């Protein structure tokens, strides 16, 4: 609790390391993880530092490791898990590791290049086989006669098709004198299917119709090893003459066609196809062997890649820290500066001795505390429970060194403030069970190393959600709200005073309403409902009026209580700093201003709850006739500022039989109320100039007499009365106006509680109530399906959306309304050199 209440005492130390032991000593401090090094070479570029070559080598090794991991992921080979506590490799081992990784990468690069060439050749030969097969089929279908006919028609001035999918019968080729088929030449190959139509049109225009094109899509389903990623088609172009051959080849080159040499003799084509199949089979065998060899390399590497990655990460971080250190003129010693918790200095020294022994060095490292004007970093010892709440505080700002940390109180106040707005026991149970699942299975979850940011956010705040669920159940019991319904646990304190005939007559008249007279319906003997709101209010038509009034006043009481507690925490800070000025002219005026207006209002609320009931009686010596005369606190507060005061008492001459004053709720309800409120208002008004002027004027007086004076809002700044005055004016105005605006801001507790309750009631009446009203066999099925809809809507809207809304409002109330009273949050976070923290950041789990 001590470290959580205030940050740890920090010591600034100077460190002298023998050059031969520096690597091992820094590595041990990385395992220790509580030393924050200062970069003494900040003005130097990374290339001019002593260990630049080693850092560059580490970067190269990181790149190699990432490339190897990419190869493993491509082949779906899993890595072997490794113990995260493996030691940092020695410098000699590090050099050998670099050589080993370089060899593995070179080997994998050569294998990949060979495979790339083999795959390309395999696909090329496979495509040649398909083209020859398609061409053989086309040539066997009397295509030459059709091509000769088409070319002859063009030469005789008739239009000829570029190609047609319809067969042309031989009897149709007779009226025109055809070219001899032996004159025809052809080129065949493969082209992307998406370019076939454009290719054919261009051939038609380039040759003026004196070429005939046929194409067929290539079926690549038989190529199970490396199927083509792009759909391909085989084509054959018939033409006459060398000039047309040249033009056709030019078009083929422009479309990046794969030209396949095809013998005109059918027997030669069959022989060529046989040779191609043999070559493809041989290439497949070579490819299988190459893949098998590559997999052997990758499987062997997968057993060590995680270890290598971790070792490279640690070595990189060690050399990065070594680059922070200065080298003495003799080059035999490295000098560094670091921050460490004061109570850990002996542990730091013991880790340095371990590093010295590992390096077999006879010269001992020297760690000596030194004085510095630098601001110490803020460090709180945390565990898995307190870390989530500390993160909430740190998101607003890091605590100043030795400043009171709001986290201990946030542990209770944050889930409680959230629960006031959430306030439903049923939804609180859902939240509690969700958080319990995270807590129970946290070891499995951490072992799985899930990197999803949203999931990790919920998991990191599992204990926050756990307490939010517990407090939501508690406030839900106070509100007596369980999925928008009340639970009659102890039995209502109200009873029905009407007989059945009266009730039936009122039910017939839709406009009539039944009221419960207190004298007859309320059970005075047993008193009020033991815990929470009486369940009878769930049936009352004025339920919202009652609950709104209760929650509104409760919000004001809780808000002002939390703000007052924040002001008292500022007193603890002033006492720690031994600042008498802040105590006398900041704390006391702030407390008086808050007390004279807002704490006074809270006292009035409590007194009204206790003394002003529905029954007549005497209150503070004044006869109180009925609830109509219960004082209006809001109008009373306005009248207090306007110095308006009514008559004392509620009836004339304080006589129970006397006439009740008009607007009796605005009269003075205790003796001397007007005088008391005037005095309180004067004190509150005087407190403002005291906060604004007294402290700066005293500081100016001290400065003129040569007495040490703080700059007021900085560290070791020269005194400037203008700056101090502006700073004081800002804080005075912020506090005075903030007390008013922050009090109003706490009304969000009531507003969000109302919104949650109304949404819950809407879901119940508009969804689940429909299913509960159904009867028969259909009703059973209806209840089943509608219940699932009700559950999904409840979790999505009321637990997640409303929960997130209440969470954000609770953040606002803590950051602005509570912490602004005492918390500066302008400190520097302690960022120690720690292998554990570096590993988490690398894995994306920080």
TrEMBL record:
Keyword Membrane part of the UniProt annotation: yes
Pfam family for this entry, one: V_ATPase_I
One GO-annotated biological process of the protein: vacuolar acidification
Membrane-spanning parts: 416-441, 461-479, 554-575, 587-611, 679-698, 749-771, 783-811
Gene Ontology, cellular component aspect: plasma membrane; vacuolar proton-transporting V-type ATPase, V0 domain
InterPro entries: V-ATPase_116kDa_su, V-type_ATPase_116kDa_su_euka
Keyword Transcription among UniProt keywords: no
Primary role: Essential component of the vacuolar proton pump (V-ATPase), a multimeric enzyme that catalyzes the translocation of protons across the membranes. Required for assembly and activity of the V-ATPase.
Protein name, UniProt field: V-type proton ATPase subunit a
């Amino acid at each position: 609790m001590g470290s959580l209440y205030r940050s740890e005492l920090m010591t600034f130390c100077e460190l002298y390391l023998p050059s031969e032991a520096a690597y091992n000593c820094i590595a041990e401090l990385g395992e220790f993880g509580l030393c924050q090094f200062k970069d003494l070479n900040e003005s130097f570029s990374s290339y001019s530092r002593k260990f630049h070559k080693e850092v560059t080598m580490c970067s190269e090794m990181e790149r190699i490791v990432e490339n190897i991991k990419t190869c493993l992921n491509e082949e779906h080979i899993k890595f072997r898990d490794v113990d995260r506590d493996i030691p940092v490799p020695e410098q000699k081992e590090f050099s050998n590791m670099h050589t080993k990784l370089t060899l593995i990468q070179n080997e994998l690069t050569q294998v990949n290049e060979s495979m790339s060439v083999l795959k390309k050749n395999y696909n090329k030969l496979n495509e040649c086989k398909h083209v020859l097969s398609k061409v053989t089929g086309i040539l066997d279908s009397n295509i030459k006669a059709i091509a000769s006919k088409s070319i002859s028609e063009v030469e005789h001035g008739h239009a000829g098709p570029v190609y047609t999918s319809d067969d042309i019968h031989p009897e149709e080729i007779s009226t025109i004198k055809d070219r001899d088929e032996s004159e025809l030449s052809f080129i065949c190959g493969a082209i992307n299917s998406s370019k076939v139509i454009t290719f054919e049109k261009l051939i038609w225009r380039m040759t003026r119709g004196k070429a005939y094109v046929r194409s067929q899509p290539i079926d690549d389903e038989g190529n199970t090893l490396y199927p083509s990623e792009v759909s391909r088609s085989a084509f054959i172009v018939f033409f006459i003459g060398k000039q047309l051959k040249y033009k056709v080849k030019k078009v083929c080159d422009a479309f990046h066609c794969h030209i396949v040499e095809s013998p005109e003799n059918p027997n030669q084509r069959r022989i060529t196809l046989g040779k191609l199949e043999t070559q493809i089979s041989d290439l497949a065998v070579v490819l299988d062997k190459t893949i098998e060899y590559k997999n052997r390399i990758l499987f062997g590497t997968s057993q060590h890649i995680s270890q290598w990655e971790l070792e490279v990460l640690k070595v990189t971080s060690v050399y990065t820290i070594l680059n922070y250190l200065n080298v003495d003129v003799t080059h035999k010693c490295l000098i560094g500066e670091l921050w460490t918790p004061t109570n850990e200095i002996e542990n730091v020294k013991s880790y340095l001795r371990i590093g010295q022994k590992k390096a077999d060095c006879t010269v001992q490292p020297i760690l000596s505390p030194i004085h510095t004007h630098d601001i110490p970093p803020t460090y709180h010892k945390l565990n898995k429970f307190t870390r989530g709440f500390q993160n909430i505080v740190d998101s607003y700002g890091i605590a100043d060194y030795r400043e009171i940390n709001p986290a201990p109180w946030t542990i209770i106040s944050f889930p409680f403030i959230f629960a006031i707005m959430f306030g439903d026991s049923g939804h609180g149970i859902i939240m509690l069970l969700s958080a319990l699942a995270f807590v129970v299975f946290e070891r499995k979850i951490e072992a799985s190393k899930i990197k999803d940011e949203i999931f990790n956010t919920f998991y990191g705040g599992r204990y926050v959600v756990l307490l939010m669920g517990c407090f939501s159940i508690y406030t839900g019991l106070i509100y007596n709200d369980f999925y928008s319904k009340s639970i009659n646990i102890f039995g209502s304190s109200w009873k029905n005073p009407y007989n059945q005939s009266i009730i039936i007559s009122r039910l017939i008249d839709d406009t009539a309403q039944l009221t419960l007279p207190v004298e007859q319906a309320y059970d005075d003997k047993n008193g009020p409902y033991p815990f929470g709101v009486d369940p009878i209010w769930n049936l009352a038509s004025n339920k919202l009026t009652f609950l709104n009034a209760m929650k509104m006043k409760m919000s004001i009481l809780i808000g002002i209580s939390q703000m007052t507690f924040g002001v008292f925490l500022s007193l603890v800070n002033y006492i720690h700093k031994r600042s008498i000025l802040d105590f006398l002219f900041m704390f006391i005026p702030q407390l008086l201003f808050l007390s004279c207006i807002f704490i006074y209002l809270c006292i009035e609320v409590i007194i009204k709850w206790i003394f002003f009931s529905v029954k007549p009686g005497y209150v503070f010596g004044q006869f109180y006739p009925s609830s109509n005369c219960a004082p209006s606190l809001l109008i009373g507060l306005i009248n207090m500022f306007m110095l308006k005061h009514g008559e004392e008492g509620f009836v004339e001459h304080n006589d129970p039989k006397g006439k009740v004053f008009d607007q009796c709720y605005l009269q003075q309800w205790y003796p001397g109320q007007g005088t008391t409120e005037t005095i309180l208002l004067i004190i509150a008004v005087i407190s403002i100039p005291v906060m604004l002027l007294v402290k700066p004027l005293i500081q100016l007086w001290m400065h003129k007499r040569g007495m040490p004076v703080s700059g007021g809002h900085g560290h070791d700044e020269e005194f400037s009365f203008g700056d101090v005055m502006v700073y004081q004016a800002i804080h005075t105005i912020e506090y005075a106006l903030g007390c008013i605006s922050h009090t109003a801001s706490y009304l969000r507790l009531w507003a969000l509680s109302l919104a949650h309750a109304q949404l819950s009631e809407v879901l119940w009446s508009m969804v689940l109530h429909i299913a509960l009203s159904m009867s028969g066999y259909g009703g059973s099925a209806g209840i089943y399906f509608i219940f699932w809809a009700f559950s999904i809507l409840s979790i999505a809207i009321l637990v997640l959306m409303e929960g997130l809304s209440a969470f954000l409002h609770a953040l606002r109330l803590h950051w602005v309304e509570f912490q602004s009273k005492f918390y500066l949050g302008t400190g520097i976070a302690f960022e120690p050199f720690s292998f554990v923290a570096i590993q988490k950041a690398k894995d994306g789990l920080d």
